[in-house]
Design a protein that fits this description.
Layout: H1 2-31, H2 33-42, H3 49-73, H4 77-82, H5 84-110, H6 115-141, H7 146-173, H8 188-209, H9 214-233, H10 237-247
Length: 251
C-alpha cells in the first residue's frame, strides 16, 4: 500500500510538470497574438525574416518542452533522453536567433533615431538568453539527477516567458502612438507575472515534499536578480559598449 501511494505521488508530480509546460505554451502562443499571429494572419506583419526564424525556433522549443515533459509523465524516459540532443540543438539555435533579432531591432531603431533606446532595451533579451543558457546548461549537466534536472528545466522557461507576457502588457498599457523601443522599466509587470510561476512551483514543492527544493531558491533568485539588474544596468556606459559591440557583429 505504501509503495502504491508513493508511486501515485510520483506520477502526480510528473504530470505537474506537464501542466506547467502547457501553461508555458499558452503564454508563449497567446502572448504574441496581438503583435505577431494576428498581423501574420492579416498580412500586416512587416518584420525582417530573422524574426520569423526566431519565432519559429522559440515556438518549436515551447512545444518540444511540452512533449519532453509528457514523455517522462508517460514513463517513456528512454525516449525523453534520446531526444535530448535535439533539445540541445534547438536551444543553441535560440541563442543565435536572439542575438540576430536584437541586432535587427537596433538597426531598425537607428532608422528612426532611437538606436540608443534599442541598445538599452537589448539588455533584456541578450542577458535573458544568457540566463536561459546557464539554467539549461546546468540542467543538462545534472541530467542524471531528476529532481534537479526537471526543476532547472522549468526555471529555464521563465526568462523565455517574459517576452510573450510583455506583449500583452504593452498592448494594454502602451500610450497611443508610441513608437520605438520602450524603456526597460516596462519589464517590471511581466517580470512579476512570470515570477508567480516560480511561486506556484515552490508551493507545489511545499505541498508534496514539505519544503521548496533548493534549486528554486538559488535558481529563482538568479532570475529575480537578472530582472533587477537589467533595469539598473541598461543605461550604463558598460552595457552600451556591450550592445554596440554586439551590433557590430553583423557589420
Amino acid at each position: 500500500m505504501v509503495a502504491t501511494t508513493m508511486g501515485a505521488e510520483r506520477a502526480e508530480t510528473r504530470w505537474f510538470y506537464v501542466g506547467m509546460a502547457a501553461v508555458f505554451a499558452v503564454i508563449a502562443f497567446g502572448g504574441f497574438i496581438p503583435t505577431y499571429w494576428s498581423k501574420l494572419a492579416t498580412g500586416t506583419f512587416g518584420g525582417a525574416p530573422i524574426l520569423h526564424i526566431h519565432g519559429l525556433i522559440f515556438f518549436t522549443w515551447t512545444l518540444f518542452y511540452l512533449v519532453q515533459t509528457s514523455l517522462v509523465a508517460l514513463g517513456r524516459t528512454y525516449d525523453h533522453r534520446n531526444w535530448g540532443l535535439a533539445g540541445i540543438a534547438l536551444a543553441t539555435g535560440m541563442c543565435f536567433t536572439v542575438v540576430l533579432a536584437a541586432i535587427n531591432s537596433i538597426k531598425v531603431a537607428e532608422t528612426i533615431g532611437m538606436g540608443d533606446q534599442a541598445r538599452q532595451f537589448s539588455i533584456v533579451s541578450l542577458t535573458g538568453i544568457v540566463l536561459f543558457a546557464g539554467l539549461f546548461g546546468t540542467a543538462i549537466a545534472n541530467n542524471t539527477r531528476a529532481d534537479v534536472h526537471k526543476r532547472l528545466m522549468l526555471l529555464s522557461m521563465i526568462p523565455l516567458m517574459e517576452a510573450a507576457s510583455a506583449r500583452v502588457f504593452m498592448v494594454l498599457l502602451a500610450p497611443p502612438g508610441a513608437v520605438g523601443p520602450p524603456p526597460v522599466q516596462v519589464t517590471i509587470p511581466p517580470s512579476i507575472f512570470v515570477d508567480l510561476l516560480i511561486v506556484v512551483a515552490m508551493v507545489y514543492d511545499w505541498r508534496t515534499r514539505g519544503r521548496p527544493h533548493p534549486v528554486y531558491l538559488w535558481g529563482g533568485g538568479a532570475i529575480v536578480l537578472h530582472q533587477i539588474g537589467a533595469i539598473a544596468l541598461a543605461g550604463t556606459p558598460g552595457w552600451m559598449a556591450v550592445a554596440t559591440w554586439v551590433e557590430s557583429l553583423t557589420g
